[in-house]
Design brief:
This is Possible transcriptional regulator, AraC family. The protein is an alpha+beta fold and 269 residues long. It contains 11 helices and 8 strands. It has 2 domains: 131 residues, no CATH class; 99 residues, Homeodomain-like (Arc Repressor Mutant, subunit A, Orthogonal Bundle), CATH 1.10.10.60. Helix content is 43%, strand content 16%. The strands form 2 sheets. The chain has a 6-stranded antiparallel sheet with strand order 1-2-7-4-5-8. A two-stranded antiparallel ribbon has the order 3-6.
């Protein structure tokens, strides 16, 4: 890959960002959906907003190309960028396409002239603070859904009932914030949970990891892993994907371990 270095966000941004990161790429790379949106600067290209993905996709950049970015927690980026996540699902767009040319021109100039990766990440974090301070406030339902599905695989109807909304309302609000509905989000976060548990080392063997992550069995894990990442579970764990977030995670492994294998609210769907 060249190199890729994730860093923890500033403490005041921990609820908004999963991580910052810097990279120098070479060759082809496969990106696996994690329910996050990224905003990044690419050398000689500019700033791009990467929408939430539903399936894995690969990219290639010229050898030695440098890039720096920040990764939003699931559902945390769309309202700050003033766009429905569904409008940028599975695509990459310029910052000007969502926030206008003034933001894109000013931030690009600062990033192009920054002294290094740390300064560029700090510039992105300052931009996130500015976007957050101007409002509007995030939909409170989105944090509830993210925390619930990061912990366990709720049935969509039960999740709507627990949130005191209809399934149609839940679908619409999730679509705007995450880029897709709760069922798709559930599958993507369940796969992230599987990787986080494997990284933690508290479970060994695919069958035990599958059960703790909320799959009905190892075959269910294999099907979902292939569908979302295009890889087998073993191939996924050996790939770059488990290390993308550094010391951070889009799921809370401690809470997952406390829940343990399947509960009454979980669904094999």
């Amino acid at each position: 890959m060249g190199w890729y270095t994730p860093t923890s966000p500033a403490p005041d941004l921990a609820g908004t960002l999963v991580c910052g990161w810097s990279a120098r790429t070479q060759g082809e790379h496969l990106l696996v959906p994690d329910a996050c949106m990224d905003i990044l600067w690419i050398q000689d290209v500019g700033i791009r907003v990467c929408g939430p993905e539903t399936t894995a996709w690969s990219f290639t950049l010229p050898p030695g190309t440098e890039s720096v970015g920040v990764r939003f927690r699931p559902g945390a980026g769309s309202h700050l960028l003033r766009t429905s996540a569904a409008e940028v699902r599975n695509i990459r767009v310029g910052l000007g396409d969502v926030l206008g040319s003034t933001w894109e021109r000013t931030l690009t100039d600062r990033l192009d002239n920054a002294s290094g990766h740390a300064e560029r990440i700090a510039l992105f974090e300052n931009a996130v603070r500015a976007w957050r301070s101007r409002g509007p406030e995030a939909d409170p339902l989105i944090g509830t859904v993210r925390r619930a599905l990061a912990r366990q695989s709720w049935n969509v109807g039960a999740l709507a009932d627990a949130a005191s909304v209809t399934e149609r309302q839940l679908q619409r609000r999730c679509n705007d914030a995450f880029g897709y509905g709760p069922a798709t989000l559930r599958g993507i976060l369940r796969l992230q949970r599987f990787m986080a548990l494997a990284q933690s080392g508290t479970r060994t063997g695919l069958a035990a990891l599958a059960a703790t992550a909320g799959y009905s069995d190892q075959a269910h894990l294999s099907r979902e892993c292939r569908r979302i990442s295009s890889l087998t579970p073993s191939e996924l764990l050996a790939s770059e994907a488990p290390d993308w977030h550094g010391n951070e995670s889009v799921v809370d492994v401690g809470n997952v371990q406390a829940v343990g294998p399947r509960t009454g609210e979980e669904s094999a769907a």
